[in-house]
Write a structure and sequence with these properties.
Blueprint: H1 2-15, H2 24-34, H3 40-59, H4 64-73, H5 76-88, H6 90-99, E1 104-105, H7 107-118, E2 130-131, H8 139-154, H9 163-184
Antiparallel strand pairs: 1-2
Helix pairs in contact: 2-3, 3-4, 3-9, 4-8, 5-6, 6-9
Length: 187
Amino acid sequence: MEKNFKLVAHIKIIMGPIEYYYPPDIERLFYQESCKNTPIFVRFFMLYASFNSRISRDSGKIRDSDMIRWVKKRSSEYRDRFNHLIENDREFRDYVRKLSHIRVRNIREEKRKQLALNAGRQHKPWGKLYHIMENERDFDTLIDIIYQVRCNLFHGGKNINLRLERHLIDLCYNILNSLYEPFIGEL
């Protein structure tokens, strides 16, 4: 734990007040850590940290939600990679097919709803309560689901001891790894 804290503290010093992404060698380190035989949620954290840094640098965005919107609307490389994998990689297609049948909760929106109801107010949704893919080619919702799983993990909305939750994280890890892996060589 102390070693991880020192790494994070070191990264914050390197980043300084202007840059919002990690240097390429740290992105590569996070990616390498994501490939080790550690619990799936640790591998997903490391992979997402590397991916997040790259899309921050490429998009010029700071907020995670803006970066995700950029991946879906402005960046063709991830959509092109997705289409290539759907057409040519049976294992990837299988991961996406399995994920397309899972309804992923938006923990933040659930909390907002509960707070409003507890205060006797009507809930006015800011976002969806659930994400579910329309079909196996629904790239935008796939990216939303991966981001939602990240949010739920980072903000305490996942129980990593439940088999279904670990399965969901595993699917998202394998899908994101397949989408992101070719870009690691560019670091």
